[in-house]
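Minutes, project check-in
Item: structure for the 208-residue chain
Input as provided by the requester:
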Amino acid sequence: MSAHLHDDPHAPIEENPEEPDYFDVLQTAIRELLVEKGLIGAGEVRAMIETLDAHAPALGSALVARAWSDPDFKERLLADGTAAIEEFGIDNYDGTELIVLEQTPDTHNLVVCTLCSCYPRPVLGLPPDWYKSRPYRTRAVREPRALLAEFGTTVPEDVTIRVHDSNANMRYLVLPMRPPGTEDWTEEQLAELATRDTMIGVTTARTP
C-alpha cells in the first residue's frame, strides 16, 4: 500500500468550499434559535468554540505515537478507545464512544459519516470541509478504492477496504501502520508522521 502526504482539501471532492454548506447553515440557525429562546447563552457558545479550538489533530498524532511506542497502551487503545484517550489526558467532552481501528497489511480502514459529519472532535478537532461534503460521504461507501486513489492512496486489490460509518453515539479513529525505519524514534518524532488524514484513513503515515 502506498500513499503521499495529503493534508489539504482535495479539489475533486469539494463542493463550493468557500460557501457554507447545508450543515453549516443548519447549525448556525439552530445555535441562533437556542440563544434567542434563552436555552443557551452566548457565553456557553463561546466556551464550546474555545473547547473545540483547543482540540486539534496534534492530540491524535501524539496518541498514535504513544500506541506505536507502547504495546500495552496500544492494546488498551484498541480494546477501549474511550477509556484510553481519557487515560492519555484527552477530554472526551462530547461523551461519545471512540472505537480505534488498526490498519494492517491485509485491511485498510476508512472513516465516514454518511448522514452528517460525526467526527472524533475530542481527538482531532474540527473536521475538514471535504469530510462533510456530499461527494465524500457518498463515494466513501460506493467507490472507496477510487476515492482513496484521489488522495494519492493506492490500495492493492488483495487488500480489503472496510468503511466505517460514524454516528451520534459512536466515532472512529484510525491507527495507521508504523512506518519502517522508525524503531529508535522518540514519540515526538513519531507524532510528526501521523497526520489528520491518516487518522481518518484517506492516507497512510508519512515515511521517514
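Outcome recorded: The beta strands are 97-102, 107-112, 160-165, 170-175.
No further action items on this chain.
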